[in-house]
């Protein structure tokens, strides 16, 4: 339970914060890159007289790890630290897409294009497709990550620091739902029909929650370890949950 007056504050950037931030940004970049690949698995069980087809984004295999590191950051170091790290991850994605845009502007060497089939036209179409997916992924990440961090921060104060696993499960479930809704709607609104989008949303939500809950012991264990090593267990009492607020302690 937090002390009655001043809970432990995340007043310094520790090596663990830097490592968690690097891991979060790395997996966020990986997830957004994988999001450009749409996969389909055909199962032998019939559904409405046809084989059951499961359509999903490849990003679901890396999704839980980005949220794992973000959840640990919020649980141990507080919402303010998480807010900066989340914005850093979004900025890294924008920088990546900016350099991909510059690459698409450069002319392709003819012999290399002939050997690989990666002509200027193919490159432009590829960039348009991946940019669309990046916009969907970054938008989904913005909504999901801040929802997860805000949920964890408020529930920790309300529960007086107890039941960390329950808080992380609740935050990750809300984040998975919002992330999936935003991503699928933006990425596939003009590609898939409503039924296909609903199936994709349901499948990805269940799969993301399952993976996140499977790594829950790792998330809780890592949070406890860092609290003990760094001597920090921040409670966001009175902290503004506005993603755009970057003030000091009085925010």
Helix/strand layout:
Blueprint: H1 15-34, E1 38-47, E2 50-57, H2 63-77, H3 79-105, H4 110-116, H5 120-158, H6 164-188, H7 194-214, H8 216-230
Antiparallel strand pairs: 1-2
Helix pairs in contact: 1-2, 1-3, 1-5, 2-3, 2-5, 2-7, 2-8, 3-5, 5-6, 6-7, 6-8
Apparent shape = globular
Rg, alpha carbons = 20 Å
Q: Summarize model confidence as the mean pLDDT.
A: 83
Secondary structure class reads mainly alpha
Helix segment count? 8
Main beta-sheet strand count, sense and barrel state:
2 strands, antiparallel
Question: Could you explain how this protein is built, in words?
Answer:
By secondary structure, the protein is mainly alpha-helical. It is 67% helix and 7% strand. The protein has a two-stranded antiparallel ribbon. Strand 1 and strand 2 form a beta hairpin. Helix 2 runs antiparallel to helix 3, helix 2 packs across helix 7 and helix 5 packs antiparallel against helix 6. It is globular.
What are the salient characteristics of this protein?
single chain, 251 residues, mainly alpha, two-stranded antiparallel ribbon, 8 helices, 2 strands, 67% helix, globular, disordered N terminus
Structure in a nutshell:
With 251 residues, the protein is mostly helical. It has helices at residues 15-34, 63-77, 79-105, 110-116, 120-158, 164-188, 194-214, 216-230; strands spanning 38-47, 50-57.
